[in-house]
């Protein structure tokens, strides 16, 4: 069955929480098409001036994080199972914004741009899949959703900023249309939410923002699996397996990603743990996912042609 969710009083929220009631309950295997706002809850394109002063939709509150749509409950899903999120389609809107510098942060301090900030205003062409900013720079679009996830099991409201093993603000640029994301379910029903559309982003998201944009269409098929246990995010793209790690340091995130990758390789190839380490040292790449979300991310990549 197919369902549709659009931004509104019932669907928009700015935190993760196991206490939020679902706005929609679906059966495993159902498909949901969303329309999403940009991360800042913006009414429309950047109007000039300070980005923090741009008009926002009336549902926005000062303590809100990213503009999320949901939560969606999956009937019969139980904590400890695996949520399978197949990303069927992602279509960006026709505008986006990148902000760099101008606010206090560890990374801006290192770059020397805490005081001086800029805003790049992008015109997006979702047909040609290109974006052009006001300075004439053109990039190829590769849209994905920055936030795909579920709330921690602990009661109360949780920030949308740090990524977690159950997903959230992963900001992994490889989670594009055609990819399947596997997440450990932390709460009964799953209570899945999505938001934070990115039209394009580099590994690391080094300035703290990508091309932040609304999405005209995000179509996801949600299913529940008992046959593929995971302890953190695992993704299957057209040409690779990815395992994602998060942590206080890049070392922590890297070793979480590699722990998941070694387990995956044992499953895929029927090898021992030491053999998986040996093969991974030859065939697996480690990449920085993002360094700007309080909790940083890394991911391990095993390409289809890397090991035969």
Automatic annotation (TrEMBL):
<dbReference type="Pfam" id="PF03069">
    <property type="entry name" value="FmdA_AmdA"/>
</dbReference>
<protein>
    <submittedName>
        <fullName>Acetamidase/formamidase</fullName>
    </submittedName>
</protein>
<dbReference type="GO" id="GO:0016811">
    <property type="term" value="F:hydrolase activity, acting on carbon-nitrogen (but not peptide) bonds, in linear amides"/>
</dbReference>
<dbReference type="InterPro" id="IPR004304">
    <property type="entry name" value="FmdA_AmdA"/>
</dbReference>
């Amino acid at each position: 069955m197919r369902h549709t969710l659009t931004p509104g009083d019932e669907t928009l929220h700015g935190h993760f929480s196991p206490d939020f009631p679902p706005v929609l309950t679906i059966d495993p295997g159902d498909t949901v098409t969303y329309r999403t706002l940009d991360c800042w809850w913006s009414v429309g394109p950047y109007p000039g001036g300070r980005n923090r002063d741009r008009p926002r939709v009336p549902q926005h509150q000062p303590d809100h994080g990213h503009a999320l749509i949901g939560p969606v409950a999956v009937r019969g899903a139980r904590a400890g199972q695996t949520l399978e999120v197949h990303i069927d389609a992602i279509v960006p809107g026709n505008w986006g914004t990148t902000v760099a510098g101008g606010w206090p942060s560890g990374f801006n301090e290192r770059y020397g741009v805490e005081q001086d900030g800029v805003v790049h205003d992008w015109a997006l062409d979702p047909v040609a899949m290109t974006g052009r900013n006001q300075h004439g720079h053109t990039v190829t679009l590769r849209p994905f959703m920055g936030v795909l996830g579920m709330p921690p099991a602990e009661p109360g409201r949780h920030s949308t900023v740090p990524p977690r093993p159950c997903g959230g603000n992963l900001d992994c640029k490889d989670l594009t249309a055609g990819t399947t994301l596997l997440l450990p379910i932390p709460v009964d029903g799953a209570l899945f939410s999505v938001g934070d559309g990115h039209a394009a982003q580099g590994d690391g998201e080094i300035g703290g923002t990508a091309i932040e944009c609304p999405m005209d269409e995000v179509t996801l098929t949600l299913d529940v699996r008992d046959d593929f246990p995971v302890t953190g995010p695992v993704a299957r793209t057209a040409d690779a397996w990815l395992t994602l790690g998060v942590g206080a340091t890049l070392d922590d995130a890297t070793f979480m990603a590699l722990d998941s990758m070694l387990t995956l390789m044992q499953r895929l190839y029927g090898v021992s743990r030491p053999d998986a380490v040996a093969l991974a040292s030859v065939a697996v790449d480690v990449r920085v996912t993002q360094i700007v979300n309080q909790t940083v991310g890394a991911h391990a990549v095993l390409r289809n042609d890397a090991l035969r």
